[in-house]
Amino acid sequence: MPSSLPSAPDLLAVVREFLENDILPASGLDDDKRFNVRVAVNLLATVERELRLGPEAAAAEASRLARLVSSGNSVEEKSRFLAQAIREGATAPNDPQLLDHIRRTLVDALRINNPKWLNEK
Predict the structure, then answer these.
(1) Cys bridge to 85: 35, 74, 91, 101, which one at CB 3.0-4.6 A?
(2) What is the pLDDT of residue 54?
(3) pTM, whole model, 2 decimals?
(4) CA-CA distance, 103 to 110, in Å (whole number)?
């Protein structure tokens, strides 16, 4: 994308902020429309975070999975092989490396999907 254009997350932020700051506070919105605008604001914020944080989170997950399993090419395949290894007892469910992977993957997902659920300072 040409550098003269704003990034996709920045464009989403502008639309989200317009809806949140100009449209939601305006009088005259009935409850249904206010609810739908709030849902739109939340969806835009989620997509914005996905674009900003998703690539790094995906790369980190792929790196962690590569250390846990040798089979599979994609993150999805490696995750399936890891689940199978846990079910078959080849990987212990309380393995520190596994628990660290699960914790970090969940935290990254929450940072994107609903950061309010994290108690980060």
Answers:
(1) 91
(2) 96
(3) 0.81
(4) 11
